[in-house]
Amino acid sequence: MVGCLFLSLLCAISFYLQGGYIDENGMLVEAFFLIPLSWLFFVLSVIVFLIMKLQGRKVIIKR
Predict the structure, then answer these.
(1) Phi/psi at 27 (nearest 5 deg)?
(2) Most CB atoms within 10 A, among 3, 4, 10, 23?
(3) b/e per residue, 20-54, with b = 16+ CB within 10 A?
């Protein structure tokens, strides 16, 4: 869970630090793939957190 959250932050920060530029043909060049990767890792960390919480509740209920 913490690993996915760390990767999410790392992707977001590296996207903003890299920046973008317009090449000689007028095309925008940037590392756009880092934005969806950042969201994917964030959603995965939330899902893992929720699964861990639900499993914790099941153990308490069984006692």
Answers:
(1) -95, 140
(2) 4
(3) eeeeeeeeeeeeeebeebbeebbebbeeeeeeeee
Phi-psi region of 37 (alpha: psi -120 to 50; beta: other; left: phi over 0): alpha
The angle at the Cα of 16, spanning 14 to 20, to the nearest 5 degrees, equals 105
| Cβ-Cβ contacts under 8 Å for 48 (sequence gap 6 or more) | 1, 4
Angular region, 22: left φ>0, alpha ψ -120 to 50, beta rest: beta
CA distance linking residue 53 with residue 3, whole number of Å: 17
